[in-house]
Amino acid sequence: MSLLWIQGGRVIDPAAKRDAKGDVFVADGKFVRSLTPAQKKRARRLDARGLAVCPGLVDIHVHFREPGQTHKETIATGAQAAAAGGFTTVVCMPNTAPPADNAGTVELINNAAKAAVVRVYPTGCITAGMKGQQLAPHGSLKKAGVVALTDDGLCVQSNELMRRAVEYARMFDLTVLDHCQDDSLTHGAVMNEGAMSTRLGLRGWPHAAEDIIVARNIILSAYSGAHIHMQHISSAMSVELLRRAKKDGVNVTGEATPHHIALTDAALHDYDTNLKMNPPLRTEADRRAIIAGLRDGTLDCIGTDHAPHAADEKDREFDFAPNGIIGLETALPVCLEVLVRKNRFKLPQVIDLMTRRAAELLKLPAGTLAAGAPGDVCLFDPDETWTYDATKGFSKSRNSPWHGQKLTGRVKATVVGGKVVFENGRIA
Length: 428
Ligand SMILES: [Zn+2]
Ligand SMILES: [Zn+2]
Known about the structure:
- The structure is a single chain.
- The chain is of the alpha/beta class.
- 30% of the residues lie in helices and 23% in strands.
- The protein is built from 14 helices and 19 strands.
- The chain has helices at residues 37-42, 75-84, 103-114, 138-144, 159-171, 195-200, 207-224, 236-247, 258-262, 284-295, 311-314, 331-341, 347-354, 356-361, and strands at residues 3-13, 18-27, 30-32, 44-47, 52-55, 57-62, 87-92, 119-122, 148-150, 175-178, 191-192, 204-205, 228-230, 252-256, 301-302, 377-387, 406-416, 419-423, 426-427.
- The strands form four sheets. Strands 1, 2, 3, 4, 5, 16, 17, 18 and 19 form a nine-stranded mixed sheet that branches. A five-stranded parallel sheet has the order 9-10-13-14-15.
- Strand 7 (87-92), helix 3 (103-114) and strand 8 form a beta-alpha-beta unit.
- The radius of gyration is 21 Å and the shape is globular.
- The two termini are 19 Å apart.
- The relative contact order is 0.17.
- One zinc ion binds at residues 152-153, 179, 231-232.
- Residues 61, 63, 93, 152, 305, 307 line the site of one zinc ion (ZN).
């Protein structure tokens, strides 16, 4: 029997309202309340003095590029980046090549996931080929093991098709995750539409394009009862729409990315393509509204939208560079900086957004240190300052705006099912 004894850390388990110095024990892959004296003698020990010990982080929004673009990331390297960032459970998006719109591709992903160092769950497409024209086979996707449906990267434009999608998804007990973007408002757009896009002479993506789809999804959810989750909310108005909908009891949820709470379009002054993403960075007022949404529960979780791209693709004119940045290895320190140090969130609230609440949205077996739950743990030093070097990270790609910057808060060890998979900067 494999035994693990994590000693003397600040144990934070928001699901149990636990925040106290103590020990955590794992036996045979699951948390247990204690070990017998004989077991303690045999157990592997991790010294957690001075560290925070929390459930392994959960990210319901990553892109691992397998199959099809494995020069950017594979499930194996993406999972290593996750482990290095303290994540033990991740949900990968289906916009691979080919897209995961059929059981065969999902099986391929699930097979690669078996060998990964963290738990990787697949999603399936809402529509065939993510073309937004006809539904993908939701029933066989569910049988193949997807945990949600999404056309992330794209947004189903037809309201009629989206209505049928959420009604089918509900029959199969699957949540629809939506990338909210009205395409008719964003043709050729590469950044937020506003004073900054005018100054830089770049085509703007107005927040109205997100707000319209968020409103559409709220209406469809209210009408059908189906759960719709809004991915990477970037606009103040979208936060307010969600707040009102939740007050009315509509079954909608939302997520925020670390980059949308840390950065604004003001950072684009030198056309750095590592600040180009979709939805784009917006204004300070939007950034503040997203933080307020996380504070009052309007937004339910943090999702990184980890989106690896090769250097030669990002190293182009701003207009032509692909959207997206990597985020798994920097998410925790960025959230600690923005939410805890700058906005006075309590540490357990931030951990809650990155563990229990993310897991609950998709009913994943993760996000708590409770006895009987899978023994997944993140150990981090909330106060250690270090310099993030994306070229030395575990992701295959390096497209991070935090490359070369000092970050505070560092993951020291990551445990999956009682097994130490990352420790002191190395994958075990
Ligand atoms: Zn997206
Ligand atoms: Zn995405």
